Amino acid sequence: MKKLIIIISFVCVSVFTNAQILKPQSVSIAYIGEAITHPGMKIGLNYSFFKWDRQKNNKGAEKIIDYSIDFKPCIGFYYHKSYQTGIFALPELSFTWKKQGGSFTAIGVGVGYMRTIIPAVYELDNDTNIRKIKAGNNYLVSNYYIAWGKDLSKKHKIPLEIFIKPHLMVAKMKEQKGIGYFILELGLNYKLR
After folding, report:
1. Which of 53, 109, 117 is nearest to 88 (CA)?
2. What is the CATH number for 122?
3. 169 pLDDT more than 70
4. Of 35, 71, 138, 157, whose CB has the highest number of CB atoms within 10 Å?
5. How confident is the prediction for the chain on average, in pLDDT?
6. H or E element, residue 13
7. How many domains does the chain contain in total?
8. Which domain range does residue 106 map to?
């Protein structure tokens, strides 16, 4: 597990080092809710690796659909009262197609690291004294999602996208089976260029 965390760290550092050369297309901020009710926040950057468009003739009307493959390094957290707080770094890779009117759909996956912090854990020492200890777990996390949204710069000339993104996050610790979290994400992408 430690080797995997080191590898993920090196990948993230190399991506952020290259970020000085590659400027992000947008910055995102989102509300996330684990099981919808446990609140959290996620921020990230969006780098487009490949972009292309395709013209489509539909009943005499010509439409252009924009496609892109994007890399999105993100960090975030969620809070589940009296149970745990999860803090994560999660780079994502997505495929997006956007219609002329600005509506878009994206599908993607991500692999990263999550640390959970468990509150109010106590330990009994040899002298039968009770003391509070720090507790939590390290996880390898992956997520799988589909997102729908609207690019407001297409019709309204506002450099902003709004989106909804339900996804499944699977957290795996050592040799155990994964724990699944349903996460609903509602957010904004502010376009930098």
Report:
1. 117
2. 2.40.160.20
3. yes
4. 71
5. 84
6. helix 2-18
7. 1
8. 2-191
